[in-house]
Amino acid sequence: MADAMGNLAAQQPGFLGMESTRDAQGLGITVSYWRDEAALLNWKAVAQHALAQKLGKEKWYSHYTLRVAKVERHYDGPEGR
Fold this sequence. Notes:
Shape: globular
Radius of gyration: 14 Å
Helix content: 25-40%
CATH topology: Alpha-Beta Plaits
Number of helices: 3
Structural class: alpha+beta
Largest sheet: 2 strands, antiparallel
Order of helices and strands: HEEHH
Number of strands: 2
């Protein structure tokens, strides 16, 4: 489902990218980036995404955390630019 949602998200207007990682026990984090809040809200309204969220709550996750944040600055590499 994670792969299917990643592919579906990538097709949505305003999608900028996604990063995901998991440890050996399966604990993980996925971060998706959107052009603006309107694009994010449109993604939230996609029916297949809503179904995946419902299944996650009912079947796959005993706990989850969702954060919505605005990236003000971004730096890459040791040079800090």
